[in-house]
C-alpha cells in the first residue's frame, strides 16, 4: 500500500519467516536468549550453505528471515535436524526435501567469510514489551520518539570505532505481541507501570556489526557474532536492519563479548 517514492529503498528480494519452536511450542518466558540457542543448529549451517539471513529477536521469541529463492537450500540444509512445516490456510503442513527438490543448489566450496568490524557504544538499552490494550496510552510518546526525537546526523566520513552513544529504537508488532528496544534514558520518558521487562530489569549493551551498510547478498554476518557467543553460552538479542546488524548482550557480559570477538578477528588474520 506504500506508494513508490524516491525516499524509500526496497530490497529486491522477497523474504520468508522461519520460526524455531521446541516440542511444538515456541519458547516462553521473559528472559531473552536470542540467537545463542539456535546458532549452532540453524544460523551456522545456513551460513555454510551460503544462505543470507536477516535475524529478528523479539521479547517473546526469535525469527529468521530467508530469501524466498533460497528456500530449497534452507530446507535441504535443516531437514536433518528439524521437522519442517509450512503454514497453509492457518494449518501446519509437513514439508519434505522432495517438495522443494526442483532448484536445489549444491553448496559451493566454502570461502572464508568477511569478518566485519564491530562497534560497542556506551549506551545502555532496555528490552521491553507492552500489553496491546495499553498501547494507546503511550502512542503519542512512541510517535515522538520514533519520528521527532533524533540526534543530529553524524558527519559524513565519521566512522569512529569507539562510539560514545548510538541512536537506536526498535518497535515490532508480530501477531499481536509487541517488542520494544530503547535506551535507558528514553525509557524514563514512558510510564513505568505500562512497560514490562524481565523480573531482573537487566540492562543490555550493543555490538553493532559493519563499518558501512552490509547489503543482503553476503552470508555469515549473523554467524560471525552468534557462533562465538553460543560457544560461550552468552545470551544475545539480535536485530538485523536495512543497513547494519545489532546484537544486544547483558551489560555485565559486554567485556567478555568484546574479548571473544577481538580474538576471533585476530585468529582470522
From TrEMBL:
<dbReference type="InterPro" id="IPR051719">
    <property type="entry name" value="CASTOR_mTORC1"/>
</dbReference>
<comment type="subunit">
    <text>Forms homodimers and heterodimers with CASTOR2. Interacts with the GATOR2 complex which is composed of MIOS, SEC13, SEH1L, WDR24 and WDR59; the interaction is negatively regulated by arginine. Interacts with TM4SF5; the interaction is positively regulated by leucine and is negatively regulated by arginine.</text>
</comment>
<dbReference type="GO" id="GO:0042802">
    <property type="term" value="F:identical protein binding"/>
</dbReference>
<dbReference type="InterPro" id="IPR026249">
    <property type="entry name" value="CASTOR_fam"/>
</dbReference>
<keyword id="KW-0832">Ubl conjugation</keyword>
<dbReference type="GO" id="GO:0034618">
    <property type="term" value="F:arginine binding"/>
</dbReference>
<dbReference type="Pfam" id="PF21389">
    <property type="entry name" value="CASTOR1_ACT-like"/>
</dbReference>
<dbReference type="GO" id="GO:1904262">
    <property type="term" value="P:negative regulation of TORC1 signaling"/>
</dbReference>
<feature type="domain" description="CASTOR ACT">
    <location>
        <begin position="11"/>
        <end position="78"/>
    </location>
</feature>
<keyword id="KW-0963">Cytoplasm</keyword>
<dbReference type="InterPro" id="IPR049479">
    <property type="entry name" value="CASTOR1_ACT-like"/>
</dbReference>
<dbReference type="GO" id="GO:0005829">
    <property type="term" value="C:cytosol"/>
</dbReference>
<dbReference type="Pfam" id="PF13840">
    <property type="entry name" value="ACT_7"/>
</dbReference>
<protein>
    <recommendedName>
        <fullName>Cytosolic arginine sensor for mTORC1 subunit 1</fullName>
    </recommendedName>
</protein>
<dbReference type="InterPro" id="IPR027795">
    <property type="entry name" value="CASTOR_ACT_dom"/>
</dbReference>
<keyword id="KW-0597">Phosphoprotein</keyword>
<feature type="domain" description="Cytosolic arginine sensor for mTORC1 subunit 1/2 ACT-like">
    <location>
        <begin position="116"/>
        <end position="199"/>
    </location>
</feature>
<comment type="similarity">
    <text>Belongs to the GATS family.</text>
</comment>
<dbReference type="InterPro" id="IPR045865">
    <property type="entry name" value="ACT-like_dom_sf"/>
</dbReference>
<feature type="domain" description="CASTOR ACT">
    <location>
        <begin position="201"/>
        <end position="262"/>
    </location>
</feature>
<comment type="function">
    <text>Functions as an intracellular arginine sensor within the amino acid-sensing branch of the TORC1 signaling pathway. As a homodimer or a heterodimer with CASTOR2, binds and inhibits the GATOR subcomplex GATOR2 and thereby mTORC1. Binding of arginine to CASTOR1 allosterically disrupts the interaction of CASTOR1-containing dimers with GATOR2 which can in turn activate mTORC1 and the TORC1 signaling pathway.</text>
</comment>
